[in-house]
Specification:
Helix 2 packs across helix 5. By secondary structure, this protein is mainly alpha-helical. The chain has one domain: Cytochrome Bc1 Complex, Chain D, domain 2, CATH 1.10.760. This is DUF3243 domain-containing protein.
């Protein structure tokens, strides 16, 4: 996973692929957003940002409360779905 996190475009492609796979498995948007929040929480605690985009996302994540973090996770899912 660390290779995926080195480049933001690669991370977005990786996330888009996982979101597409989850949708094909029949997961709801709510479930996907919940999983994105869990992944964001994991990354925040365990992974150092590897590029400027990830550092910005971490700063936004750290500044937000739980509701704002869930919104950020949902926005990331929407971002990669439109890419």
């Amino acid at each position: 996973m660390t290779t995926v996190l080195t480049n933001f475009a690669t991370w977005k492609h990786f996330l888009a692929d996982r979101v597409s796979h989850a949708k094909n498995m029949g997961m709801t948007e709510e479930t996907i957003a919940s999983l994105a929040f869990e992944i964001g929480s994991f990354l925040d605690e365990k992974v150092d940002p590897k590029n400027e985009e990830e550092r910005l996302l971490k700063q936004l994540w750290d500044a937000g409360d739980e509701g704002e973090r869930k919104a950020l996770a949902s926005l990331m899912v929407k971002l990669v779905q439109k890419s």
